[in-house]
């Protein structure tokens, strides 16, 4: 043992530090929880809570089927929701492409303006919830679905940009080199060696974002930016539970259907 | 060299599928454009209005910071508690859904189906429903975030659990472990890292989500967005945006550091 | 003709990749460059089409300095030099034909190539190139569905479609089995003889080098330590040059596989 002094000394030291780290994290976590729960308001279940829950449940079981085909009814609202998410997703995908390349770290160049700033801009965009963006766009283009389209289109750039950048970072640089060696110019190199590698990923992520945007678009109506959200919030505030029920079912069906289709397409692309 | 080779060359595959796909996408886009009443002309003609909106936001109302500290903390609290409850509830859900843990298909498939149903409902909608049940305040927000978190954590983790190394599981079966021992020694050590990382990720998502739940009356900073925008008080809106940005960036940073430390 | 005039290359980290290289490679030669791992073979080859910048000296391609060339000029010189890589560097998701056609992009304006509008002659040229390396039947197959040897033949076809006057190949057979190695090397030799394309190949194996080369260049630590016809490149000669290094390396496989 005396021949291996470094081992006998080093090991417990490193371990002690690790344990210390863990304990420190646990203590911090405990403090956070004490703080979080201390701030919670007194929790009393209102007598009506049970009643309302039952009413909502009844409403879902006996939905207001008449609303489905009404003018500006369920079908119309869901189509509007879908249209908002399709257009919003498309706009964001197109706008994201340059961002993806901007925020990707590269072998040949580095520095704040190449990658760091791009990443910061993306985080900055991601901070604005689509609902808040929608409120702002409503001020600009008036209430309605278009404001919703713009909100989704802008908000989605934040997440898509990050994913696109990762895709760009993961490309095989060999084909790029091969194209440069043939005498291709920058754009030709991009089109013939980079795009074919990143496009399937881009499309797949766009479809994934589309799934999220359908969910997002279904609540935009709450603040007046089109889609099924408007009749929903109206039904909720007027306590029209059968109508809430039918709308909820409609959203679940729409989102599930889109998830299925999009999931199938994504599997096919890869 | 400009003659095609004599040998039989294969026929180029038809491009019909590509053209059809492109056509479908274009039609969908056109229909969506019409349905939503979109008009990029509007956007261009209204650019002054948008610019003035942005100009109105400056300078931010710094004094307002003091007033929004409390709701901001409330937002963080909601996210902390919602994520925690969500994580706790996720554990049994994960074990039920992962088909290499729960080998009974008539349990794992319905469990996944319900999980997928939960995931279809947007968090703001959950919050609106819980507000109807419990009244205004943090409580409905916490409930909404809890359910929302289960949807994310359970889904991501059970998929990872299904991909874990089979070796330890077989080893535990070989030594004759019972189900609880089997889960403790074969599943948890491998799944824990994923679980923690997904919980932290969900926490980041929840901070953003919690910031808007107030729009439907479920506590936090969201209510203040609504009222200030309603009163056209843009300097205050700007303050809110800056505060939210700061909190989100800090939380992301801390969460990332924590993830690195724990893994 | 390729001319190295006092070429040196120092990597940013201070490593000397090439030390004062002077070489003249005539049209139609089949040159094999050999050397131990790290000798500077790739560095030398990649300086020819300026995938690597050199730090000193000048490289002339057909009496035009590629070292001084810029922009469009540089791209035109590169257009005449085909390159073949150890790991093929095909776009795996694209079809074989599209990969071969990508060798033609430098001949057309950007807009045209962005939309993939190649003239009929180009497509025939590409198909003929594929025919020459015997895989024209795979023209519309996705490249990742081909074996390694087939992929390397596609990349040879790309260089052919490029109508290159020079072909550079950096260990084109290093990831192939002996049989496919022979096919690929035979293809390169055939092209060299039939079309008179100057060919410069980096190889680890001296016995293959002797089989195919008209002239062998030996590198060591960035310097030319042998340059002569195949007949002079005897085992004894290389033993002398690389000495103990060779023996050591031999146990691991590369360079001196002459003993095989
Ligand atoms: N990008 C680089 N940065 C720094 N040094 C490099 C770089 N590329 C190569 N080198 C160094 O330059 C020397 C020559 O490398 P080179 O790749 O040309 O060798 P090689 O003969 O092709 O070897 P191998 O047979 O292993 O491919 C080596 O010492 C290598 O470590
Ligand atoms: Mg090399």
TrEMBL record, chain A:
<dbReference type="InterPro" id="IPR005769">
    <property type="entry name" value="PhnE/PtxC"/>
</dbReference>
<dbReference type="GO" id="GO:0005886">
    <property type="term" value="C:plasma membrane"/>
</dbReference>
<dbReference type="Pfam" id="PF00528">
    <property type="entry name" value="BPD_transp_1"/>
</dbReference>
<feature type="transmembrane region" description="Helical">
    <location>
        <begin position="20"/>
        <end position="38"/>
    </location>
</feature>
<feature type="transmembrane region" description="Helical">
    <location>
        <begin position="134"/>
        <end position="154"/>
    </location>
</feature>
<feature type="transmembrane region" description="Helical">
    <location>
        <begin position="217"/>
        <end position="238"/>
    </location>
</feature>
<feature type="transmembrane region" description="Helical">
    <location>
        <begin position="111"/>
        <end position="128"/>
    </location>
</feature>
<feature type="transmembrane region" description="Helical">
    <location>
        <begin position="244"/>
        <end position="265"/>
    </location>
</feature>
<dbReference type="InterPro" id="IPR035906">
    <property type="entry name" value="MetI-like_sf"/>
</dbReference>
<keyword id="KW-1133">Transmembrane helix</keyword>
<protein>
    <submittedName>
        <fullName>Phosphonate ABC transporter, permease protein PhnE</fullName>
    </submittedName>
</protein>
<keyword id="KW-0812">Transmembrane</keyword>
<dbReference type="GO" id="GO:0030313">
    <property type="term" value="C:cell envelope"/>
</dbReference>
<dbReference type="InterPro" id="IPR000515">
    <property type="entry name" value="MetI-like"/>
</dbReference>
<dbReference type="GO" id="GO:0015416">
    <property type="term" value="F:ABC-type phosphonate transporter activity"/>
</dbReference>
<keyword id="KW-0813">Transport</keyword>
<feature type="transmembrane region" description="Helical">
    <location>
        <begin position="82"/>
        <end position="104"/>
    </location>
</feature>
<keyword id="KW-0472">Membrane</keyword>
<feature type="domain" description="ABC transmembrane type-1">
    <location>
        <begin position="78"/>
        <end position="262"/>
    </location>
</feature>
<comment type="similarity">
    <text>Belongs to the binding-protein-dependent transport system permease family.</text>
</comment>
């Amino acid at each position: 043992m005396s021949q291996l002094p470094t081992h006998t000394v080093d090991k417990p030291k490193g371990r002690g530090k690790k344990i210390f780290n863990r304990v420190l994290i646990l203590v911090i976590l405990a403090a956070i929880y004490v703080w979080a729960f201390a701030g919670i308001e007194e929790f009393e279940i209102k007598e009506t809570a049970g009643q309302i829950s039952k009413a909502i449940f009844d409403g879902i079981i006996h939905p207001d089927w008449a609303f489905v085909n009404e003018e500006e009814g369920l079908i119309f609202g869901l189509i509007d929701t879908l249209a908002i998410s399709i257009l919003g997703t498309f706009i964001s995908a197109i706008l994201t492409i340059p961002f993806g390349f901007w925020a990707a770290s590269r072998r040949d160049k580095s520095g704040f303006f190449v990658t760091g700033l791009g990443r910061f801009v993306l985080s900055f965009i991601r901070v604005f919830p689509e609902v808040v963006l929608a409120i702002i766009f409503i001020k600009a283009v008036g209430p309605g679905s278009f404001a919703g389209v713009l909100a989704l289109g802008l908000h989605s750039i934040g997440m898509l940009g990050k994913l696109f950048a990762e895709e760009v970072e993961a490309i095989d640089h060999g084909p790029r080199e091969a194209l440069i060696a043939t005498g291709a110019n920058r754009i030709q190199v991009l089109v013939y060696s980079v795009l074919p590698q990143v496009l399937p990923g881009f499309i797949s992520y766009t479809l994934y974002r589309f799934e999220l945007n359908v969910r997002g678009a279904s609540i935009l109506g709450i603040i007046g930016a089109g889609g099924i959200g408007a009749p929903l919030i109206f039904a909720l505030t007027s306590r029209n539970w059968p109508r809430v029920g039918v709308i909820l079912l409609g959203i679940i069906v729409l989102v599930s259907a889109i998830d299925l289709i999009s999931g199938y397409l994504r599997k096919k692309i890869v | 060299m400009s003659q095609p080779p004599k040998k039989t060359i294969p026929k180029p595959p038809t491009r019909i599928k590509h053209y059809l796909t492109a056509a479908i996408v274009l039609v969908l886009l056109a229909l969506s454009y019409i349905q939503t009443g979109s008009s990029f002309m509007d956007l261009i003609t209204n650019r002054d209005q948008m610019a003035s909106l942005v100009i109105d936001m400056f300078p931010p109302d710094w004094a307002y910071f003091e007033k929004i500290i409390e709701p901001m903390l409330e937002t963080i609290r909601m996210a902390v508690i919602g994520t925690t409850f969500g994580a706790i509830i996720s554990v049994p859900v994960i074990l039920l859904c992962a088909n290499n843990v729960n080998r009974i298909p008539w349990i794992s498939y319905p469990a996944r189906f319900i999980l997928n149903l939960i995931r279809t409902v947007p968090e703001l909608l959950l919050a609106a429903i819980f507000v109807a049940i419990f009244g205004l305040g943090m409580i409905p927000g916490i409930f909404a975030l809890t359910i929302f978190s289960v949807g994310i954590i359970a889904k991501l983790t059970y998929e990872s659990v299904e991909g874990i190394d089979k070796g330890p599981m077989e080893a535990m079966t070989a030594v004759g472990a019972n189900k609880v021992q089997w889960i403790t020694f074969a599943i948890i050590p491998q799944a824990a890292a994923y679980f923690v990382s997904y919980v932290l990720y969900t926490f980041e998502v929840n901070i953003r989500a919690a910031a808007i739940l107030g729009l439907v009356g479920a506590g936090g900073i969201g209510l203040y967005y609504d009222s200030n925008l309603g009163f056209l008080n843009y300097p205050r809106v700007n303050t809110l945006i800056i505060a939210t940005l700061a909190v989100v960036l800090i939380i992301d940073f801390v969460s990332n550091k924590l993830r690195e430390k724990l893994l | 003709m390729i001319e190295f005039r006092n070429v040196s290359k120092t990597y940013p980290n201070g490593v000397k990749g090439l030390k004062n290289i002077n070489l003249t490679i005539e049209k139609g030669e089949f040159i094999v460059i050999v050397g131990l791992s790290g000798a500077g073979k790739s560095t030398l080859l990649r300086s020819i089409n300026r995938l690597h910048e050199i730090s000193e000296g000048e490289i002339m391609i057909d009496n035009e300095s590629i070292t001084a060339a810029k922009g469009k000029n540089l791209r035109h010189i590169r257009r005449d030099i085909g390159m073949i890589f150890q790991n093929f560097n095909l776009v795996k998701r694209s079809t074989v034909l599209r990969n071969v056609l990508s060798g033609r992009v430098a001949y057309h304006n950007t807009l045209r190539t962005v939309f993939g509008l190649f003239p009929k002659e180009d497509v025939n040229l590409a198909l003929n190139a594929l025919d020459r390396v015997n895989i024209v039947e795979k023209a519309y197959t996705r490249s990742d569905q081909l074996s390694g040897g087939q992929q390397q033949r596609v990349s040879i076809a790309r260089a052919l479609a490029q109508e290159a006057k020079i072909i550079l190949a950096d260990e084109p057979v290093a990831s192939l089995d002996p049989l496919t190695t022979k096919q690929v090397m035979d293809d390169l030799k055939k092209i060299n003889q039939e079309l008179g394309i100057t060919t410069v190949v980096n190889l680890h194996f001296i016995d293959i080098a002797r089989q195919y080369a008209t002239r062998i260049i030996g590198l060591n630590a960035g310097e030319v330590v042998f340059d002569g016809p195949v007949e002079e490149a005897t085992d004894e000669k290389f033993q002398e040059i690389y000495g103990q290094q060779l023996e050591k390396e031999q146990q691991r496989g590369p360079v001196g596989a002459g003993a095989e």
